[in-house]
């Protein structure tokens, strides 16, 4: 019996000494850990959620994904930050397949005629140790309007899977869809649209 106990203890000790048995370390929310440099969007974990009031009954949401773009970031000179993001309109997705098709049609986003949405920052200002205000030009449905996002650092560090230096933010803004020419069913279906962004960026090697 003692030999069995000793063997089990030895096996346990061997397992916990293997690096992969330990919890992998991800990002840290410490703003001092953010590295300056040029970053590219990591598309698999970047998404834009949109929410609007549906006929006065529910706040209904959908998503855009497959983003591409770049971020030039220097925490010591936050006003020099540059952000350039493109989203394919055909990536729109809700929980209703029929609605996804309608949103891509000419009655709504008209993905065939206007295949992308594009945001380019024009001014970035610090709003706290982990916060920033990002103002820029959003082009959607062929219309360009200024939009301001409130952004917050989520974390930065080396991604334990692909070993790339990564930084992640969340952002939010409210826009008027009719201002961009997407006005079907306004005001029955809400004109104000809340955008919530989860943005992941990988540093260029």
TrEMBL record:
Keywords: Signal. Pfam families: YceI. PANTHER family: PROTEIN YCEI. Residues 1-23 form the signal peptide. Gene3D superfamilies: Lipid/polyisoprenoid-binding, YceI-like (2.40.128.110). This is Lipid/polyisoprenoid-binding YceI-like domain-containing protein. InterPro entries: Lipid/polyisoprenoid-bd_YceI, TTHA0802/YceI-like_sf. Residues 38-202 form the Lipid/polyisoprenoid-binding YceI-like domain.
